[in-house]
Amino acid sequence: MKLPIYLDHHSTTPVDSRVLDAMFPYFRDEFGNAASRTHVFGWKAEAAVEAARERVAVAIHGSPVEIVFTSGATESNNLAIKGVVDANAAKGNHVVTAATEHPSVLDVCRRLERERKIELTVLPVDSMGRIELAAVRAAIGPRTVLVTLMLANNEIGTIHPIAEVGRITKAAGVLLHCDATQAVGKIPVDVQAMGIDLLSLTAHKLYGPKGIGALWLRRKNPRVRIAPQIDGGGHERGLRSGTLNVPGIVGFGRAVEIAIEGMDEERRRVRGLRDRLHRALASAIEGMTLNGSPDDGLDGNLNVSVAGVQAESLVIRLKDVAVSTGSACASASGGPSHVLRAIGVADDLVHASIRFGIGRFNTEEEIDYAAKRVVEEVQLLRETAPCSDEADARSSRRS
Ligand SMILES: *Cc1c(COP(=O)(O)O)cnc(C)c1O
User: What separation in Å is there between the alpha carbon of 324 and the centre of ligand 1?
Assistant: First the structure.
């Protein structure tokens, strides 16, 4: 077993060696610009890009002409939301989202609210992070142009009923954008069955490279129109200019292909490891509570609060086990998790929360070791905590 152990797969995933093998030639021999039309270097690069485009499209039941390659899901979310708002100004200016969305959705919406005076509805969620379908229906009005809801949550693993939301948006004639970053390759995603109109995804959450993602845009029933946010050479049908990241795109295509092929088996295995970790922690740590609902959430997600323990201190002491407090994205900006707050977790427990993300290459041995280390450090922190109940109890026993 190699240390440290990586249990933070919602932040990013290691590149699968099969993905790296597929990418390698496109750094060295096949270095052409996919937009070069006059020589074989360009043609080969373009052929590789188109093969990857097909793989990404097929994985979500879309068609290749509907894929726009971007630098990742953050850019895809920006392009989708700003692009739809800009292109539909004549129709309306109301956007509906939910409190537990990723910052690359929520911060975009808030900027549009401040700077372009859109009307924004942020739907609340229940204690499991679930939205209410009736609330979605009620939020949609004559000026609504977009509903944007994620498929799977990156902190607590909650899966939204997107197919049901899709029926509501279709009936209302409103576009549905879905940030499916945590879902593609982990659970079945079908833009047709789910009634999605725009979908964001990224390679580095599914064992592909960082810095490459895509926005899928429906071309028929309805044809989705967006305003480009980056102008230049007119790449990607004019929707996202800039020389294509050929090795990244090739890796993205291969990563998606591998994830879809092995999904059923991997889901069972990852879920087994997650449940094993949960059992080991729950049996040894008193006062541990679950955030989210592992049984019907993402297979690899386990988010817990450990009463009386500062998560910051815990993750720093866990030098040989890589986990995250709350959300890595939220902690980049220093704030406490907006997701845990939205599901009603009390402030002290928000600061006591740890997120485990189990992935493709984790083993039982690693899970057992990680559980043992977490239990040890929790006990140590509780013994030294100046004002924990346990410490109080001990000192009163002593006196
Ligand atoms: C990681 C993540 C993103 C951002 O993706 P990048 O490719 O890193 O920009 C967006 N949404 C969700 C739900 C994520 O988990």
Answer: 15
Mutate to test the pocket of ligand 1, among 154, 178, 245, 327 (most ligand atoms within 8 A of CB): 154
Q: Which amino acid is at 8?
A: D
Domain shared by 242 and 316, yes or no: no
For the entire predicted model, the pTM comes to 0.95
What whole-number distance in Å separates Cα of residue 74 and Cα of residue 202? 9
* CB of 249 closer than 8 Å to CB of 212: yes
Backbone angles phi, psi at 385, to 5 degrees: -60, 130
302 lines ligand 1 (CB under 6 A): no
Q: Is the CB of 145 under 6 A from ligand 1?
A: no
pLDDT tens for 352-375 read 999 999 999 999 999 999 999 999
The tens digit of pLDDT for each residue in 96-133 reads 999 999 999 999 999 999 999 999 999 999 999 999 99
CA 251 and chain centroid, separation:
19
Q: Which of 211, 236, 261 is the last residue of a domain?
A: 261
CA 202 – ligand 1 centroid, Å: 7
Domain with 177, as residue range(s), is 17-261
pLDDT digits (tens, 9 = 90+) for 220-247: 999 999 999 999 999 999 999 999 999 9
DSSP output for 9-29: TTT--PPPHHHHHHHGGGTTT
Catalytic residues: 329
Separation of CA 394 and ligand 1 centre (Å) = 45
Q: Is 158 in the pocket of ligand 1 (CB under 6 A)?
A: no
213 Cβ closer than 6 Å to some ligand 1 atom:
yes
